[in-house]
């Protein structure tokens, strides 16, 4: 079985969080390495993090960068994306839509804390809830796809985590989004997720 080294900063709820969660839940042998930054920047494939290095059983190495490419690769490798192309595309569509809310959080929390960026974040998340709550309500398992954890489940978990960080987790709560909240609560009770 392959082993993995994830190069990233030692922070929670960053661009490598979904990858860390999937590696943990997938039972991967992996470690987080924090490069000496910014001196290591020039040695990175695109001069930024995260970077994933897979060491295969034959000793060969596969290096991948760009957070979304890494997430998709790990999701495929550990069964968090369906093998059916249409179902996989649907799952990735959900992730891309969730990413809009995460980017609105980044804009508000790291770029410009203004009333305008806060309102945009709130409206983006409310729109997401209006579209995603029915998706989860329609699946008796409570997951986005099938009966088990999948890539979009991890993405919505991350979104709730970052909203919680800034005191806005009421946007996805038991009263505002009961099906989304139930999934997030169930995931938070998973020891592999809690330890990531």
Automatic annotation (TrEMBL):
* Segments forming domain GST C-terminal: 84-196
Q: Which SUPFAM superfamilies match?
A: GST C-terminal domain-like (SSF47616), Thioredoxin-like (SSF52833)
Name the GO terms of the biological process aspect.
glutathione metabolic process
Q: What is this protein called?
A: Glutathione S-transferase 3
Q: Which InterPro entries match?
A: Glutathione-S-Trfase_C-like, Glutathione-S-Trfase_C_sf, Glutathione_S-Trfase, Glutathione_S-Trfase_N, GST_C, GST_superfamily, Thioredoxin-like_sf
Q: Which residues form the GST N-terminal domain?
A: 1-82
Q: Give this protein's Gene Ontology molecular function annotations.
A: glutathione transferase activity
Mind listing the UniProt keywords for this protein, alphabetically?
Transferase
């Amino acid at each position: 079985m392959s082993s993995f080294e994830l190069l990233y900063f030692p922070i929670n709820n960053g661009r490598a969080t979904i990858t860390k969660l999937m590696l943990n839940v997938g039972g991967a042998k992996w470690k987080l390495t924090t490069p000496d930054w910014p001196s290591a920047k020039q040695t990175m494939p695109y001069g930024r993090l995260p970077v994933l290095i897979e060491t295969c059983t034959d000793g060969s190495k596969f290096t991948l960068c760009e957070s979304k490419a890494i997430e998709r690769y790990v999701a495929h490798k550990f069964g968090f994306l369906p093998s059916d192309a249409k179902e996989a595309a649907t799952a990735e569509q959900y992730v891309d839509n969730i990413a809009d809310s995460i980017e609105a959080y980044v804009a508000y929390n790291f770029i410009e804390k203004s009333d305008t960026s806060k309102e945009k974040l709130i409206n983006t998340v409310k729109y997401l809830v209006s579209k995603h709550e029915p998706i989860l309500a329609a699946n008796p398992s409570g997951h986005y796809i099938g009966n088990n954890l999948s890539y979009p489940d991890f993405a919505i978990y991350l979104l709730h985590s970052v909203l919680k960080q800034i005191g806005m987790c009421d946007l996805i709560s038991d009263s505002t989004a009961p099906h989304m909240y139930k999934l997030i609560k169930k995931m938070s009770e998973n020891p592999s997720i809690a330890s990531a």
